[in-house]
Amino acid sequence: MSKLVCNKCVLDSDIPGIEINEENGLCHFCETYVPLSSQEKEQYLNRIEELFKECSGRGNYDVIFALSGGKDSSYTLYKLKKDYPFLRVLAVQFDNGFISDYAVVNAKKMCEIAGCDYFKLTMEEEILHELFRKAAESCDAFPNFAKYRASDICNICIGVIKQKLMEEAIVQKAPFIVFAFTGGQSPNPIIKLSANFIQWSRNLFEKQLQKIGVEDRDEQFLVKNEVIKNIGEVAPSILHPLCLWDYSEDKVLETVSNLGWKAPALNDSNSTNCTLNSFACYNHLEKYGFHPYAFDIAGLVRSGEMSREEGLYKLSQEPSQSLIEDVAEKLEIKLNCSINSQK
Length: 343
Known about the structure:
The protein has 15 helices and six strands. The chain is of the alpha/beta class. Strands 3-2-1-4-6-5 form a six-stranded mixed sheet, with helices on both faces.
């Protein structure tokens, strides 16, 4: 049977587990999708404001913010501080060894504009290269729901970020961790954590690291067990305010550009901060046969945050060969001949 593409989003029948209803032309996700209403979003925003007012001032910081230096995180940091200027924010940028110079400049500029502290989380380059090499060489290390939402390399990188931000929040006694996830990426705006959940999350990620052949005995990538033991009475909560705000990529780009944010010349339609992304997409396509951004983009289209045409266009773009080759050389991974023959 020829490939069918959902009439509403961008998912197609060639992706494992995706079936398109031939009668209405919709995938299962679109058939069952119920968006948050304007009233529900307003209720969530009111609850977040209440939480900010109730819990601010208890620790060294109120918010540990995941700042990549890309457009979405830069916009979210700016609007967060604009809407809630009383928040004391520590913005953490994880230097995975492949963030662009522009991303660092943009991150520092946005922190200066927002009036918050900046911290760059760094690790030894050799250790990170081995981590991403093993992720690239692994297969089926993550369950389908994770594999469908991101490449193995991105899942590992995001896992490290989440672990270390939880650790930082506990150490700083910050009641909130904020990520710049859109409605298509995270439909749950408020996630209350507990010591048991953080321990479970740590153990799960440790098993995933072991599955790709990484033993993190020094807890470089994991929340340190000793930190979890000292969590205190209240664990931090994770917030996703961007999924509650009106979102369009054009609006976000216009806002941050007017503030002085500069788009890097990465030639990557899906990342404005990471030079590893094109290789991660290539690696995922080689292993699994579908684009790692398909589900995220489908979520954006489904929620009305991106047009279907734009979503299909993003998925049709070939990853940058120059970025792929540069990363492959650094990770000491041999590319297949199909890439090399396209030079």
